[in-house]
């Protein structure tokens, strides 16, 4: 029973789900940071991409701490896409934390704590540590499970190198690892003795003839030489936040997995900063500053902004990239209005990258890329219509029509989406414009319409009209961004 | 060919010493964060046990690593027992499920001890006869290597004592012996090593020794 469950879980992890920005693989720049027209899933926004490329370069060099970059532009002009592109261009080694401005509002944690955790999640520390690993070819593996199906499993494995052979007893946890990795006789594996991590390196050359057919991804490796147990220097990449959590005595490292970290004391953080600096001097550790990306930064309030002002001055601060789609608007938590809803003093510390609306040609390219990403074959005419829809309504709506049109097309057992399919989904699903038009026409038939109207009158009469208008404006734009 | 570095290193450490029965235990705290513990037999002046604790970086207390002498016998397996210290039978396996992976208790087990004239390694649980083994000194590795012609056992044994006085291992000093499932490798100590050990003992003479707790207790009880 346990076996089948495990297999299912494996299958789910293998399928990558297609998200809004999963077609983006990088910034699409060449070696001299010039933006290619269409590359790595990015289209248009040449200036913004070039600017982002410079930022990426700055992060890679890792010398400058606490810079702030603002991506500003209208809704659906690719701000988040550029941020995702930056993350991809930086690679997996550099920490890239992505959060939304509204994520900091939690009842369990103060706003500034959430922000400083996010800042510290974006600083990586590479620590060199010596660990003991066992590396060898599996000669024999026995796993016995009790007849009742539950309870302790007993496992034994015999490993060998070219020179020696040893038997090992397996603990319960590692048996699970062995089963998950589907390890069998003839595999060359490594076991990290401290953490119990099992890694399959490949199959031994001597076992190459065991099967007539092997999968394409089967790697054949030499049987290791020398001793089975070796001391190897391994490099861990952890973030400062993880070190914080491990060292905050009240929780212990289990908090890392439960996510329930609570507030971490400033003293702990200071200690860790000092320790990390010490390690760096000794050459044991390397600091690897990354990027913190805050989407919808106008959702932060005045306290957060003033906290950021100070936090960015610390020499342990990452590069912060923010994105907003607001023009001159009220700063949250005050009655003052400011560009992008960010106080002027913080804006002064930023460099601003502007994204511009896409041209029709670029929209078509994006739609084409999305079609490929979703495995949808679209007729050129249908694509033209879709482009038209995208320019008239919004790019997001058009992208959503790709998925739905593809489903409609599959229902009539065709492989290529044609204009009829697009027309059909266009009539089935309303875009925001048409929906609000209908709302305006049939306002009276909807529930509570009278009360709403009444309330609005009171509000305007009360003199808070300007404020209310801004608030409703916020509400309109919000669904567009997601 | 000098042990001065080692003496200086010991000199730099913060040392504590205490007596326990016929053993003198010395604890060294080095400026680089490492710690060493030694047990000297008071009758012979020979080190019986020596263990190192190297500072670990990420978390947790580092474990003691035994360079010399027997590991304390454990009745039940600890979670991180590295070598087979005691008889772990099936019942004990069930009661200690936390371990991840360990050598089974029939695998060869290496221990080292030092006598007045020799350094000795015993490898238990090696049932093969004497012709199977080849024990060679490899100066490039600063180690002695044990090989078996049936490819069942292979071990690079570092010799830190020789490193400390800058001597490479010499093939001529090695002799091997096999009985009771045990391979015994004996390495005759060169003179310089004996000299170094004498110097270390002189150094330790100046370290103040705490009173034996057992004696103290006995004295108190007598009153």
Automatic annotation (TrEMBL), chain A:
Which leading EC class covers this enzyme? hydrolase
Gene Ontology process terms (BP)? DNA repair; DNA repair-dependent chromatin remodeling; negative regulation of signal transduction; positive regulation of DNA-templated transcription; regulation of canonical Wnt signaling pathway; regulation of cell population proliferation
Q: Where is this region: Disordered?
A: 457-482
One GO cellular component, as annotated = nucleus
Q: Catalytic activity, per the record? A: ATP + H2O = ADP + phosphate + H(+)
Predominant subcellular localization, coarse grouping: nucleus
Sorted keywords for this record are:
ATP-binding, Chromatin regulator, DNA damage, DNA repair, Helicase, Hydrolase, Nucleotide-binding, Nucleus, Repressor, Transcription, Transcription regulation
DNA damage listed as a keyword: yes
Any one Gene Ontology MF annotation carried by this entry is: ATP binding
InterPro entries per the record?
AAA+_ATPase, P-loop_NTPase, RuvB-like, RuvB-like_C, RuvBL1/2_DNA/RNA_bd_dom, TIP49_P-loop
Highest taxon listed in the record's lineage: Eukaryota
Where is the protein situated, by its record's location annotation? Nucleus
AAA+ ATPase domain mapped to chain residues: 65-357
Pfam hit, one: TIP49
Instruction: State its Enzyme Commission number(s).
Output: 3.6.4.12
**What does the sequence similarity comment in the record state about its family?**
Belongs to the RuvB family.
This one is known as RuvB-like helicase
Automatic annotation (TrEMBL), chain B:
Q: Which residues cross the membrane?
A: none
Q: Which Pfam families match?
A: DPCD
Which residue stretches belong to region Disordered? 75-95
The similarity annotation says: Belongs to the DPCD family.
Protein name per the record: Protein DPCD
Q: Which organism is it from?
A: Drosophila rubida
């Amino acid at each position: 029973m346990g076996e089948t469950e495990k297999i299912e879980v494996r299958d789910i992890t293998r399928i990558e789900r297609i998200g809004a920005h999963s077609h983006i693989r990088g910034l699409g720049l060449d070696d001299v940071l010039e933006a290619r027209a269409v590359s790595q899933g990015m289209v248009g926004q040449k200036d913004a991409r070039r600017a982002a490329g410079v930022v990426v370069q700055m992060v890679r060099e890792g010398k400058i701490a606490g810079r702030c970059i603002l991506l500003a532009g209208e809704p659906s002009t690719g701000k988040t896409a550029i941020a995702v592109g930056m993350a991809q261009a930086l690679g997996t080694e550099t920490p890239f934390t992505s959060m939304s401005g509204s994520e900091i509002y939690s009842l369990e944690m103060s706003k500034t704590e959430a922000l400083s955790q996010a800042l510290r999640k974006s600083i990586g520390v590479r620590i060199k540590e010596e660990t003991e690993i066992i590396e060898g070819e599996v000669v024999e593996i026995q796993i016995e499970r009790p007849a009742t199906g539950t309870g302790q499993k007993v496992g034994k494995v015999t490993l060998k190198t070219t020179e020696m052979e040893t038997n090992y007893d397996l603990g319960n946890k590692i048996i699970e690892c062995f089963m998950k990795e589907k390890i069998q006789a003839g595999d060359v594996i490594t076991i990290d003795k401290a953490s119990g991590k099992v890694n399959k390196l490949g199959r031994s050359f001597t076992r190459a003839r065991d099967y007539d057919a092997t999968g394409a991804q089967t790697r054949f490796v030499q049987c290791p030489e020398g001793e089975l147990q070796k001391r190897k220097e391994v490099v861990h990449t952890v973030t400062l936040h993880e070190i914080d959590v491990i060292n905050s005595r009240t929780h212990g490292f289990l908090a890392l997995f439960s996510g329930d970290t609570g507030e971490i004391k400033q003293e702990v953080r200071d200690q860790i900063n000092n320790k990390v600096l010490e390690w760096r001097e000794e050459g044991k550790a390397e600091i690897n500053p990354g990027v913190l990306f805050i989407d919808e930064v106008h959702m932060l309030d005045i306290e957060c902004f003033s906290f950021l002002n100070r936090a960015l001055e610390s020499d342990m601060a990452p590069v912060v990239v923010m994105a907003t789609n607001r023009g001159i608007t009220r700063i949250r938590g005050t009655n003052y209005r400011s560009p992008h809803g960010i106080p002027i003093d913080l804006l002064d510390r930023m460099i601003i990258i502007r994204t511009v609306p896409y041209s029709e040609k670029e929209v078509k390219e994006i739609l084409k890329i999305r079609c490929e990403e979703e495995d949808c074959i679209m007729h050129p005419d249908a694509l033209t219509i879709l482009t038209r829809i995208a320019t008239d309504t919004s790019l997001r709506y058009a992208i959503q029509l790709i998925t739905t049109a593809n489903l409609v097309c599959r229902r009539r057992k065709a492989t290529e989406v044609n204009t009829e399919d697009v027309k059909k989904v266009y009539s089935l699903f309303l875009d925001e414009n048409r929906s609000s038009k209908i709302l305006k026409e049939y306002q009276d038939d909807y529930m509570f319409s009278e009360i709403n109207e009444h309330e609005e009158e009171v509000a305007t009469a009360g003199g808070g009209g300007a404020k209310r208008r801004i608030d409703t404006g916020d509400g309109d734009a919000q669904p567009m961004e997601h | 060919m000098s042990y001065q570095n080692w003496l200086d290193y010991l000199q730099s450490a913060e040392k504590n010493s205490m007596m326990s029965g016929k053993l003198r235990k010395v604890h060294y705290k080095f400026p680089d964060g490492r710690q060493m513990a030694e047990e000297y037999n008071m009758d012979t002046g020979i080190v019986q046990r020596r263990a190192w604790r190297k500072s670990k970086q990420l978390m947790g207390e580092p474990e003691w690593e035994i360079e010399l002498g027997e590991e304390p016998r454990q009745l039940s397996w600890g979670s991180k027992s590295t070598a087979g210290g005691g008889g772990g039978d099936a019942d004990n396996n069930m009661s200690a499920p936390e371990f991840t992976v360990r050598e089974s208790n029939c695998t060869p087990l290496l221990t080292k001890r030092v006598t007045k004239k020799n350094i000795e390694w015993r490898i238990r649980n090696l049932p093969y006869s004497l012709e199977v083994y080849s024990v060679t000194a490899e100066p490039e590795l600063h180690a002695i290597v044990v090989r078996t012609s049936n490819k069942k056992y292979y071990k690079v044994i570092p010799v830190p004592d020789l490193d400390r006085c800058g001597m490479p291992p010499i093939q001529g000093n090695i002799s091997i012996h096999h009985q009771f499932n045990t391979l015994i490798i004996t390495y005759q100590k060169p003179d310089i090593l004996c000299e170094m050990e004498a110097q270390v003992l002189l150094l330790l003479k100046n370290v103040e020794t705490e009173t034996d707790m057992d004696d103290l207790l006995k004295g108190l009880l007598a009153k």
